[in-house]
């Protein structure tokens, strides 16, 4: 009965991202999510494969960045390129500038939409203001939106209306690491609540062990974020969020070269939610801007602007909950490094979701979304390039995505989930022509005819709770049609003519299949001790299109993905102390050495991290943490990864 009551408890809440998560979590004794269906659900009964990282998990993690946290989630792979540079993949298929993950902060996308990847250092939130991070595995475009191809990372911050979170921290570490952050909640009036956060850090970059010419010795990041909630009436709420970030780092670009990179991002978001006679109606609009500078065959600036407007209605009829929505997106970037053109597209995407609580122990969810993309190009072309007519970019793309899930609570101790889904990885602006370069006698141009990659996933999971131990098993299969590869001289896009140069571009190069399983267990014992362990195995088989060398095209994911990964966490808390250790093992996989692009095998390796918290007072904590304590230096073909130690002082008020 508690599950059926959840939507009623949340009635009148401002939105799926603005409910009182804390009260619901206290009431039901476990994290509550609204992400999958729009209405609140227990994390153990949501109809998707979801792992929730709680605020307590973050506090005890010793992590100083998001990729470190995500690397401890079952089935996730992290490629650590540099101090701030990392890529995150789900069950394989990870790569430099990985474009398969939807990353959100309070419902706003924070991945960079010109190429669909996430520069994690640009995300403008402090770890101390995060209530929970929801990690969803598998394609979830119909439920979560654009780019949810291999998974979703949904970051939910504390709501200033319900949560008074204020404090600051300073930390220092090896390799010149210095960090400071501040979070301040305040009320301007009984109906206006806000939270302001800011943070900055710097460090000496990892040693340039591969001798790349584009290298920044000192890296840094800074960001600020404002979140304001206004209660207009008892049933209507306005939420305003704005942010800015500025980072200077070293990153791996999509061909696996390493580049000194600068990012400046900005965002403005406004959402209005009202509990109306026709349901909980939410209108949202936001705008993201990006200015970056990267070194690829020379330094080039890049700009990207995306505007999103959406409307949704969530309503309940008996045991049925429905969510109807529509989204409009406009995404554009000027061509670079050769300027003069602009590539853009608009997307109109209607969607619908139906959640049926058949009984207290059985529920289903069905979602469908239609993405309708209209591509456009304006401006001039470099001399000598083929396809030099903007009419070649007058193209429409339409694809359907879906998610279907069922949750059956066989008993108080046993739960079974069945899930099937289809996701769509649309072409990015870079692939479509945002990047254009002429280096005689060859050109690199966009491909206006490239097809979306289609990902289909099937999964079954079983969880059982003993008295003090929980165990789980998941079996899954996945197919990807029209895998996209990088430009390569082994695969011409356009051959030369009497008047045009030969051209390289991004191409559809293969189909791919993946199957695997995940085992997990967790428990508590004695006084204050807890543990968790997981093991995920995947087998990826790529089928190249005729004449395509997947190694040269950076698309040999069967070789580029580890066949297994595993985690072990041991922790203890007592009195004023908490102690945690984290072990992560990654199987061997192939990668590409920067500059030479030689294929190298990254050996299997195990990383060790630890964190100790001591509460000096109820409001002050000192923490000592270490990362890569096992000295596993070779984790990618990029810089060797050093061991790092941090000392942090946190004050809450």
Question: What is this structure's SSE topology?
Answer:
Elements: H1 2-9, H2 21-28, E1 32-33, E2 41-42, E3 49-54, H3 55-61, H4 66-70, E4 76-80, E5 86-90, E6 101-105, E7 108-109, E8 130-137, H5 141-144, E9 151-157, E10 167-173, E11 177-189, E12 192-204, E13 218-231, E14 236-252, E15 258-276, E16 279-295, E17 299-317, E18 320-334, E19 336-337, E20 341-357, E21 362-379, E22 395-409, E23 414-425, H6 429-434, E24 435-439, E25 442-444, E26 453-465, E27 469-485, E28 503-504, E29 507-525, E30 529-544, H7 557-560, E31 564-574, E32 577-586, E33 589-592, E34 599-602, E35 605-617, E36 620-627, E37 644-652
Parallel strand pairs: 6-9, 19-24, 25-28
Antiparallel strand pairs: 1-2, 3-8, 4-5, 6-7, 8-9, 10-11, 10-37, 11-12, 12-13, 13-14, 14-15, 15-16, 16-17, 17-18, 18-20, 20-21, 21-22, 22-23, 23-26, 24-25, 26-27, 27-29, 29-30, 30-31, 31-32, 32-35, 33-34, 35-36, 36-37
């Amino acid at each position: 009965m508690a599950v059926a009551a959840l939507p009623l408890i949340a009635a009148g809440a401002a939105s799926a991202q603005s409910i009182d998560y804390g009260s619901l979590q206290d009431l039901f004794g476990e994290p509550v999510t609204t992400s999958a269906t729009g209405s609140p659900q227990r994390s153990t009964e949501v109809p998707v494969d979801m792992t929730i990282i709680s605020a307590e998990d973050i506090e005890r993690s010793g992590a100083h960045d998001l990729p470190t946290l995500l690397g401890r989630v079952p089935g996730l792979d992290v490629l650590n390129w540099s101090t701030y540079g990392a890529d995150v993949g789900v069950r394989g298929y990870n790569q430099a500038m990985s474009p398969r993950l939807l990353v959100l902060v309070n419902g706003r996308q924070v991945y960079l939409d010109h190429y669909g990847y996430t520069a994690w250092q640009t995300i403008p939130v402090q770890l101390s203001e995060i209530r929970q991070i929801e990690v969803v595995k598998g394609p979830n475009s119909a439920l979560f939106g654009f780019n949810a191809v291999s998974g979703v990372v949904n970051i939910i911050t504390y709501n200033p209306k319900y949560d008074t979170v204020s404090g600051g921290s300073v930390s220092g570490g090896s390799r010149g690491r210095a960090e400071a952050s501040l979070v301040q909640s305040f009320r301007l009036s009984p109906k206006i609540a806000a939270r302001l956060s800011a943070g900055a850090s710097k460090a000496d970059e990892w040693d340039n062990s591969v001798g790349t010419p584009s290298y920044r010795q000192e890296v840094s990041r800074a960001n600020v974020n404002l979140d304001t909630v206004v209660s207009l009436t008892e049933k209507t709420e306005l939420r305003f969020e704005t942010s800015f970030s500025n980072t200077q780092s070293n990153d791996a670009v999509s061909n696996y070269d390493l580049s000194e990179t600068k990012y400046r991002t900005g965002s403005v978001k406004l959402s209005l939610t009202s509990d109306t006679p026709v349901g909980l109606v939410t209108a949202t609009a936001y705008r993201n801007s990006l200015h970056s500078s990267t070194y690829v065959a020379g330094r080039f600036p890049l700009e990207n602007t995306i505007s999103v407007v959406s409307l949704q209605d969530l309503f309940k009829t008996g045991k049925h909950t429905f969510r109807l929505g529509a989204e409009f997106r406009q995404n554009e970037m000027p061509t670079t490094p050769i300027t003069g053109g602009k590539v853009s597209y608009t997307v109109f995407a209607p969607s619908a979701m139906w959640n049926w609580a058949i009984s207290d122990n059985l529920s289903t969810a069905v979602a469908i979304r239609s993405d309708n993309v209209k591509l456009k190009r304006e401006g001039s072309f470099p001399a000598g390039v083929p396809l030099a007519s903007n009419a070649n970019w007058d193209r429409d793309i339409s694809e359907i995505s879906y998610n279907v899930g069922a949750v059956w609570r066989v008993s108080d101790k046993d739960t079974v989930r069945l899930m099937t889904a289809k996701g769509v990885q649309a072409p990015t602006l870079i692939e479509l022509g945002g990047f254009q370069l002429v280096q005689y006698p060859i050109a690199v141009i966009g491909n206006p005819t490239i097809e979306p990659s289609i990902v289909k996933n099937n999964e079954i999971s079983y969880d059982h709770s003993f008295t003090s131990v929980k165990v789980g098993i998941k079996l899954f299969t996945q197919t990807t049609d029209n895998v996209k590869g990088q430009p390569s001289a082994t695969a011409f896009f356009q051959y030369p003519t009497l008047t045009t140069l030969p051209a390289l571009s991004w191409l559809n190069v293969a189909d791919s299949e993946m199957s695997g399983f995940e085992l997990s267990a967790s428990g508590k014992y004695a006084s204050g001790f807890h543990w968790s362990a997981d093991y995920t195995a995947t087998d990826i088989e790529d089928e190249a299109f005729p004449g395509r060398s997947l190694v040269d095209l950076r698309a040999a994911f069967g070789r580029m993905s580890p066949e297994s990964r595993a985690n072990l966490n041991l922790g203890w808390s007592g009195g004023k102390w908490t102690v945690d250790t984290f072990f992560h093992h990654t199987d061997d996989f192939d990668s590409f050495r920067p500059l030479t692009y030689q294929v190298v095998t990254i050996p299997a390796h195990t990383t060790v991290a630890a964190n100790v918290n001591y509460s000096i007072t109820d409001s002050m904590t000192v923490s000592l943490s270490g990362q890569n304590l096992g000295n596993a230096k070779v984790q990618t073909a990029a810089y060797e990864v050093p061991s790092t130690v941090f000392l942090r002082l946190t004050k809450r008020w």
